[in-house]
Specification:
12 helices; 582 residues; alpha+beta; six-stranded antiparallel β-sheet; 30 strands; single chain; globular
Length: 582
């Protein structure tokens, strides 16, 4: 066995408390190098005359990626503490691995040899809001969803959908337009709305905040927003707002004061200024988002800035009962600020959802003291490479998502925010080169993957669009311009997610097989005694697979299939899918 590939540490995704009684312990080994793994475990204080008392319990192979196998065990220590190691087997070869390294046999007289989980303290359990697991989100870019009150239109507002979106143009989307179309969202099955920023700002995207305490006047006033939130709650829809705390806008009054008064400004330490006078050309001499002078970076380590932003976080919960915050450019803000942000938010609303925008490995933010989840862009990119762009085959996709899932604790994966596109990306239909069957396969994958899915407005009716600003087109409300078949498809997936326990949040995900030759993917979702097989075949040729079972129900068609010999043959057509409950 290759010792160099064997890895474990009693922390993060390798050893964690799943709930107040249960530990999950994970081990990494070289792919196909180990046949079986057993956990060697016992209470650290359980000793007898012959030495430390321990037992062996089988671990199971949870997943594999390109290089490694990942083994998992779910265990309930009777006294909530554990010393443990691993026994690895391959044929006649046995290897014991623990904190001090490798040996042939587990020591009986040296408790320090083993890994230690000192005590399962309930306060250390990663907890995210339970309701999020059963939520299907819908992202709304308010300026482009619907214009319901023309009296609010900014100067120069264009007629709805009369031109291509540009960086500077306006079409008059507002809160009243959203209120007018809430029944559309209810009918689709949506029970969570994620709004891009709604606060007073200069641009049409509103990520350049002028006043964090005020609604942008083109969207309406606070009473209209309150009515929108109340109506959503009455219809079972939660509300998540976008918090842009990494940077402000150019016209944010404290920054304007710095521009005017320079190093004499009372707000000079609110930002990261490299010199005075402040300059925006040819390059800003202050820290900003992506070098743009229109978005100066806030100094969240400054006590006054911190107090102001925490007041913002509290205000919209206290006054309007919002249900969550999505945090823009969250990885560029200091960890201590997010720790205090969480304390402030959770004190007011313990089940509020805190979602960070992070595109890379996010374990430092997901240890229970900062975020409930991050936007799951690693899933997004893997899914798009496989099904939209054809740049990754099924094996490569399976390796990527297995690596992602094994990079986090299971209770983190359960509320990961799974998206196919957003205001920052090309439309999924465009990425699929207008192939709507590819879009359908992506929606199926998204709706059945661990986590909470989010639809970018209009994707469900086959809206197209390239990179920003093309991905921010006006929502098409004329049904003649909507793909009603795709909409019905998405609606049915959402219903299955809500009515079939294994399909939705309760189902445990496992990849059964993938093929680089036929490019098909088979995975299961299981709950109690129910197993659902998902077969995705994006190739141009039909495939056939065999599974154990005498009877199965096709959840899409409602038809049953049976076999006399306990082996079911399932046939998936070219560029098609199967959903079979066994």
């Amino acid at each position: 066995m290759m010792k160099e590939a064997i890895y474990h540490r009693p922390k993060n995704s390798f050893a964690y408390a799943y709930d107040e009684r249960t530990l999950h312990i994970r081990l990494r080994t070289k792919k196909n190098d180990v046949e079986t793994v057993k956990l060697i475990h016992g209470d650290p204080y359980d000793w007898a005359k012959e030495g430390w008392q321990f037992q062996y319990t089988d671990m199971f192979l949870q997943a594999s990626d390109e290089l490694f196998d990942y083994w998992l065990i779910k265990i309930t220590p009777p006294y909530r503490r554990l010393r443990y190691g691993f026994a690895l087997y391959n044929g006649d070869e046995q290897l014991v691995y623990a904190e001090r390294g490798f040996s042939d046999e587990p020591p009986l007289d040296d408790i320090q040899y083993y890994f230690c989980f000192p005590f399962l303290n309930e306060v250390d359990v990663f907890n995210s809001p339970e309701w999020v697991k059963d939520t299907v989100w819908y992202q709304i870019f308010p300026e482009r969803f619907a214009n319901g009150d023309h009296s609010l239109d900014p100067a120069g507002t264009l007629e709805w959908d009369s031109a291509q979106p540009q960086q500077e143009n306006f079409f008059g989307g507002d809160f009243q337009g959203i209120i007018d179309h809430l029944d559309y969202l209810v009918d689709l099955g949506i029970n969570g709305i994620y709004f891009t920023p709604i606060f007073k700002a200069h641009s049409n995207h509103k990520y350049d905040t002028i006043d964090y305490m005020e609604i942008d006047p083109q969207f309406g006033d606070k009473e209209t927003f309150r009515r929108l939130v109340n109506m959503c709650h009455e219809k079972g829809i939660r509300i998540m707002l976008d918090a842009v705390f990494n940077h402000s806008g150019y016209y944010f009054p404290p920054f304007q004061d710095v521009l005017k008064n320079g190093d004499k400004s009372l707000y000079k330490d609110w930002f990261h200024i490299r010199g005075f006078p402040v300059k925006t050309k040819p390059e800003p001499n202050f820290e900003s988002f992506a070098f743009t002078p229109h978005m100066p970076k806030l100094n969240t380590e400054n006590p006054e800035v911190k107090a102001y932003l925490l007041k913002v976080a509290a205000y919209w919960i206290e006054e309007f009962d919002i249900d969550g915050w999505r945090l823009d450019v969250a990885n560029e803000v200091d960890h201590q600020f997010w720790r205090e942000f969480r304390q402030e938010v959770k004190a007011l609303k313990p089940d509020a959802y805190i979602l960070g925008e992070i595109w890379h490995d996010s374990m430092p933010w997901l240890q229970g003291d900062q975020f409930d989840a991050v936007m799951n862009y690693p899933f997004t990119l893997a899914a798009l490479d496989y099904l939209a762009k054809d740049t990754k085959n099924a094996d490569e996709f399976a390796n990527q998502v297995s690596n992602v899932l094994c990079s986090y604790p299971e209770n983190v994966n359960e509320t990961a925010f799974n998206l196919l596109g957003s205001h920052d990306t090309e439309r999924v239909l465009t990425l699929c080169s207008e192939d709507k069957q590819k879009v359908r396969l992506l929606f199926l994958l998204q709706m059945s993957f661990p986590g909470t899915p989010c639809i970018y407005y209009g994707d469900e009716i086959a809206m197209s669009g390239g990179e920003d600003p093309e991905c921010r087109k006006c929502m098409k409300w004329d049904e003649k311009q909507q793909d009603l078949y795709l909409k019905a498809f998405v609606k049915k997936l959402i219903k299955l997610r809500k009515t079939e326990p294994a399909f939705g949040s309760k189902g445990e995900f496992s990849i059964v097989e993938s093929s680089s030759e036929t490019n098909h993917l088979v995975y299961t979702k299981s709950f109690n005694n129910e197993v659902i097989y998902f077969v995705i075949n994006p190739s141009s040729k039909p495939i056939s697979i065999t599974i154990n079972g005498k009877k199965a129900t096709n959840l899409w068609t409602g038809k049953q299939v049976s076999a006399a010999d306990n082996l079911l043959q399932l046939d998936a057509g070219a560029n098609d899918f199967l959903i079979m409950k066994v």
